[in-house]
Amino acid sequence: MKFLSYREDVIRKMIQISATTKGEFLVCHPNPGLEQRESFISDSHYLEYIPKPPGWKRNAYSLKCIVCKKENRKHVSQFRCKHCPSLPTLCPVPCFEVWHKTMLNELDEND
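The structure corresponding to this sequence follows.
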């Protein structure tokens, strides 16, 4: 087995796609190995950088992640959910998914 074939096999296993999957499918259907996630999260909610306040001189602006804060972890993030009404500051992994699953459960309980 050549190094290139080995590398491609390792990458396919890491991103959970079969050896027969073509590149066209990956472009049209991003993240094919993550079907178990709710379509609500992947279809309508995205991370965005928190904009810098006027006069901010550093390269990045960050705030405390609300999920980490509730779990008494000290972690800051440069990201927030673009489509949530409260624009919550969230770590990309795992807090983004945890926050939206919690939000979905609360919506189901209220109905």
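The radius of gyration is 18 Å.
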